[in-house]
Amino acid sequence: MIAEIEKYIEIQNNIDQILKDSPLKMSYIIEKSGIKKPTFFKKMKEKRFTPEELLIIAKNVEIKEWRNETKEEILESLKRSEEDIKHGRVHDFYEVMAKVKERIQKAKNESSVH
Questions:
Q1: Whole-prediction pTM value?
Q2: To 10 degrees, what angle do helices 26-33 and 2-21 make?
Q3: Cα–Cα separations (whole angstroms), residue 52 to 19, 28, 46, 55, 59
Q4: pLDDT at position 111
Q5: What confidence tens digit (pLDDT) does each residue in 14-36 have?
Q6: d(C-alpha 44, C-alpha 5), whole Å
Q7: How far apart are CA 10 and CA 4, in angstroms?
Q8: Largest alpha-carbon pair distance within the chain?
Q9: The pLDDT of residue 64
Q10: Which of 37, 67, 85, 97 stands 20 to 30 A from 53 (CA)?
């Protein structure tokens, strides 16, 4: 339990940098948080988000720790990819793109209904 609390404190103390380093626009993060813009920036400056607010933000930003793969890991991944191709475990690009477009359109339609 101590590790979880320490991680929470670390996130709370570094939330401003975490959000700045995020590939998402700040306006999107603020919108998804449901917090008014001036309040959001005040909370970020003072590092005073509630645990519930941090959870909402994290679900939208999905804070991840990234690491560089070793040469061996990359080569192993390439071997698995070659095996997938050899055994027909592939997807047609145009079919994948059509499905993605369908999902986007469905999401747009659902959001316009609400």
A1: 0.51
A2: 130
A3: 16, 18, 16, 5, 11
A4: 76
A5: 999 988 888 889 999 999 999 99
A6: 19
A7: 10
A8: 55
A9: 57
A10: 67
Domain ranges of the chain: 2-61, 71-113
DSSP letters along 18-75, please?
HHHHSSS-HHHHHHHHT--HHHHHHHHHHT---HHHHHHHHHHH------PPPHHHHH
**Cα–Cα distance, 52 to 83 (Å, whole number):** 44
User: Taken in order 54, 56, 59, 61, is the CA torsion positive or negative?
Assistant: negative
75: its two tokens:
């080569």
| Cβ–Cβ under 8 Å, residues 16 and 46 | no
Chain centroid to CA 78: 25
- Distances in Å between the alpha carbon of 4 and those of 7, 16, 73? 5, 20, 30
With H, G, I as helix, E, B as strand and everything else as coil, classify residue 89.
coil
Cα–Cα distance measured from residue 55 to residue 15, given in angstroms and rounded to the nearest whole number: 12
Q: How many residues does the chain have?
A: 114
Q: Is 102 helix (H, G, I), strand (E, B) or coil?
A: helix
